[in-house]
Structure formats: C-alpha cells, structure tokens
C-alpha cells in the first residue's frame, strides 16, 4: 500500500510480545500498514523484549506498560489480562486509540467507555478468532433474541484455565469431547481469561455478557480451535463457524488473531473499507 502523505502518520505501541504482539510488531516494522510506525513495545521481561526487537528495521523503545500511552497514538493490548488496567487506563486518559485483546478483562472495566467519551479516546475490539461480528452488529440494530457461542479446543489449549483449576476438571488424557463450561459470556471470560476472549467480543457486539450463552468443550478429536456462533434476531438467523489453526507459540490462541489486529490497523488508514 502506498502511504498517503496528506494524512499524518500514526504511532503504535504494543503491550505484550507473545505470539500475537510479536507478529503485529514485526508486521508494522516491515511496513505492512502504510502510515503507522511502531515506536514502543512493552513486555514483562524488558531485556528479552529488547533482544527480540534488535533486528527490526527501526527497533522500538522498550518501556513500561503504563508509559506506552506517552509514546503512541494507538495501543494494541495483548498482555496477560491481569495487567489490562495498567495498559488501558493511561491510554484512555490520554485520548489514545486502544485495541484490547484481553476483551474479557474489558467487561470488568466498562467505566472506560465513559472515560473514553470524555477524553476523546477510542476503544476498538478486533474481531479476533470469530467470524461474522459485522452480522451481529447489524442484527443488534434491531432486536436479537438469542446469541450463543460454542468453543471447542484441543485439551492443551485449555490447560491451566482458572475454571478448570477451581473445579478440579482434568482434561489430560481425554478420549472423547467433554463440556467443561456452560454459562454466560461474563462467567466464561472470568473462568477462561486466556481462552475465550471471543465470548466477550461477541457479547459486546450483540446483547451483552449476561444474555450471551457460552459452552466450552475440551475436544481431543480436533487439532483446531473451533468457534461456532448461533444467533437469532428479528432480521434473521445465522450460524457461523470458524476453524482456527492454533498458534505455534501459544495453543490458547489462533494464528488468525494477530492477522485480525493487523486488519484493524489497516482499516484505520484505508480510504475504502468493506463491511460494517
């Protein structure tokens, strides 16, 4: 894409350099999104982060999570959910554009929406591993009667989730699929903070975290992360399924999640976009 010199460039900060953050940072450093420059990153191990970015065309500054908002116009948050507020609060207060991947954590900080309105900030939730959020948003303009998400993952993609630990659910050595959770999107986000951020994204696009229903399955018969959405509204019904290849670095997330962030950044700069 050719950069439009009439539009001021945007600067980007990336919080977290795991499977998602590192792919996004490298893509922006390579110039995949014209008009956006990577200027800062943050990670728990700052020395390691500096080493990982040393071969970039323009190595970014490595700063504390709370300092990203002082450096960048756009903050991509793909850090552990426990540090969400450390990234999000300064970004919103400074009037930045925040792209959170820890969408489940956002449900516990909905006051940020009012804060963003006051500061001029924006919160843009990338679609991530789901399909059809544009359809869900369109249906939400009318009346959505029900929204349901079924998440199926290989057992290793759910290992260590708080819901499994708290309820002593062992998913190792399964011979057949096991439903390990059934409840609201709000409860799913708390029980699986690193696994089902898609549930929170669906809820925010549709009828909210308390009315959106979620099932989580540990399925030893699959090698993909499968997300299936069923929604009924006054404008129609839809069933949408996405089979995501797990990330090589982190089986809890799909390869497409980083691509979704890059697509959202492209949309910020594009003169033409398709889809609502």
- Any idea what the CATH architecture of the largest domain is? 3-Layer(aba) Sandwich
Helical region count? 11
CATH level 4 superfamily of the largest domain: NAD(P)-binding Rossmann-like Domain
- Total of domains: 2
Describe the structure.
There is one protein chain. With 276 residues, this protein is of the alpha/beta class. It has 2 domains: 10-127 and 256-269, Rossmann fold (3-Layer(aba) Sandwich), CATH 3.40.50; 133-252, Dihydrodipicolinate Reductase, domain 2 (2-Layer Sandwich), CATH 3.30.360.10. It has helices spanning 19-29, 46-52, 68-71, 84-93, 103-106, 111-119, 133-141, 162-166, 185-191, 197-205, 255-269, and strands at 10-15, 36-42, 61-62, 74-77, 97-100, 122-123, 144-153, 178-184, 213-218, 225-233, 236-244. Helix 2 links the parallel strand 2 and strand 3.
List keywords for this structure.
alpha/beta, Rossmann fold, Dihydrodipicolinate Reductase, domain 2, six-stranded parallel sheet, five-stranded mixed sheet, 11 strands, 33% helix, 24% strand
Give a concise summary.
The chain has 276 residues and is an alpha/beta fold.
Compile the SSE list and pairings.
Layout: E1 10-15, H1 19-29, E2 36-42, H2 46-52, E3 61-62, H3 68-71, E4 74-77, H4 84-93, E5 97-100, H5 103-106, H6 111-119, E6 122-123, H7 133-141, E7 144-153, H8 162-166, E8 178-184, H9 185-191, H10 197-205, E9 213-218, E10 225-233, E11 236-244, H11 255-269
Parallel strand pairs: 1-2, 1-4, 2-3, 4-5, 5-6, 7-9
Antiparallel strand pairs: 7-10, 8-9, 10-11
Helix pairs in contact: 1-11, 4-6, 9-10
